[in-house]
């Protein structure tokens, strides 16, 4: 591969890392800060991607949409569309914890995906929505800068939230919910706020993804790519640490990309399915990290209290 090919691949690789980093930051707000076991990431990812696709593509026959609106309007729309969906999911699952919440959210995510499969009037069904252009006529290099800017702003905002009194309440709920309730905090309200905020970041990642690949279809939002990898990124990077979430996105996507080459070197007779073998390798990586560094590559550090010296 020549220098131009390597450069193009590096841009493609880093763009996906940035998109996954935003989703990992959203999951960190739900799980790392509040302890909400959300396995429905792919659903909110799909809501964001389809919303911006419907709003920003040119008119097309056979489906709603084609409003040909600007890039920024599409991204704002993807976040706004996610708010009622996430709020409804949070209300439905308000009394669920741990495994029960995980089962409910993965089921809801699959319902959302199948909705886009079957409602062709809105999503064009399995044929998907093509023609999603990058903003300002940019190529992949320029769009990478836009993704990087969104990653930086997202990290800054969630880090401010983590260090704020609101973030301290979320961590208190995660660590000792009965004591937090006894202190007079509205547990359900704070959990809903964290769930909706994190889900909106996942939808934002979906909107950026749609403009990056230029095409969305239900196949892109299966649990493997939309949920499983995001969880591995957060756990590997460091749950509760925003920098760890972004580092996990980089490391895990690098390893995931490398597994394609490794799987290609192993005889098919030995591994059966290449995709299953790649998941197997990522699973081994996760087990190694859980055993050797159970808190991740960058463990959580408690932010200083107001007036406290570092």
UniProtKB/TrEMBL annotation:
<keyword id="KW-1133">Transmembrane helix</keyword>
<feature type="transmembrane region" description="Helical">
    <location>
        <begin position="101"/>
        <end position="122"/>
    </location>
</feature>
<feature type="transmembrane region" description="Helical">
    <location>
        <begin position="268"/>
        <end position="290"/>
    </location>
</feature>
<feature type="transmembrane region" description="Helical">
    <location>
        <begin position="39"/>
        <end position="57"/>
    </location>
</feature>
<feature type="transmembrane region" description="Helical">
    <location>
        <begin position="194"/>
        <end position="216"/>
    </location>
</feature>
<dbReference type="InterPro" id="IPR001851">
    <property type="entry name" value="ABC_transp_permease"/>
</dbReference>
<feature type="transmembrane region" description="Helical">
    <location>
        <begin position="228"/>
        <end position="256"/>
    </location>
</feature>
<feature type="transmembrane region" description="Helical">
    <location>
        <begin position="6"/>
        <end position="27"/>
    </location>
</feature>
<dbReference type="InterPro" id="IPR043428">
    <property type="entry name" value="LivM-like"/>
</dbReference>
<dbReference type="Pfam" id="PF02653">
    <property type="entry name" value="BPD_transp_2"/>
</dbReference>
<feature type="transmembrane region" description="Helical">
    <location>
        <begin position="69"/>
        <end position="89"/>
    </location>
</feature>
<keyword id="KW-0812">Transmembrane</keyword>
<protein>
    <submittedName>
        <fullName>Branched-chain amino acid ABC transporter permease</fullName>
    </submittedName>
</protein>
<keyword id="KW-0472">Membrane</keyword>
<keyword id="KW-1003">Cell membrane</keyword>
<feature type="transmembrane region" description="Helical">
    <location>
        <begin position="142"/>
        <end position="161"/>
    </location>
</feature>
